[in-house]
């Protein structure tokens, strides 16, 4: 099924260059195939299937494609780029092959990892929306023709949704991680660099989310804050490793 998923992703890339709707259809089919593969593996192992970065990136990439498909319903302009998502989906699915199976068989562990994946995806989408909004504002101020025709108000509201989802998912990640370490190691907290970095990110997004909620930050600074948050999340994902 994984080979079929890769093949359809490749076809979605080719089709997206020629016919947008066909590209979107093939992307939807590809994500569905990956989801079925993931669910089957999850059911077989009775846990989140992957233990290393390759597996996490594989899931995150396919979740990103799924979010793109949902957003393309609202943002018509981004629906013009199914071929880009075809590349993202193909490369993400390819990372499944070197992914290592998880040694843990725990629902708490599975939920901990899944909420972490969603928080990473939400942070990246938030950063992308922020960069798009800043670019559009810069072009409008200089009376240039906008690269994308997307309402600024809609981008602004989407940024708010993104930061809130990231904060909530990070909260669940920390709570579920604490419960899992309690059941596995016998205590709620372990001195792990990844957990410390994740806690710092939780504080950062808590501050950013609440400053926006209380209207204590300007829209431009909020967007810049989202970009910084995305950078920090990517550094945590790629540069910080678990000690255990």
TrEMBL record:
Bilayer topology: Multi-pass membrane protein
Record's keyword terms, sorted: Cytochrome c-type biogenesis, Membrane, Transmembrane, Transmembrane helix
Parts forming coiled coils: none
InterPro entries reported for this sequence: Cyt_c_assembly (IPR002541), Cyt_c_biogenesis_CcsA/CcmC (IPR045062)
Domain of life: Bacteria
Domain Cytochrome c assembly protein: 52-241
Primary localization class, coarse: membrane
Recorded GO MF terms: heme binding
Transmembrane stretches, start-end: 22-43, 49-69, 81-99, 111-136, 161-180, 195-214, 221-240
GO cellular component: plasma membrane
UniProt GO BP: cytochrome complex assembly
A Pfam family matched in the record: Cytochrom_C_asm
Cellular compartments annotated: Membrane
Protein's recorded name: Cytochrome c assembly protein
Native organism: Thermocrinis albus (strain DSM 14484 / JCM 11386 / HI 11/12)
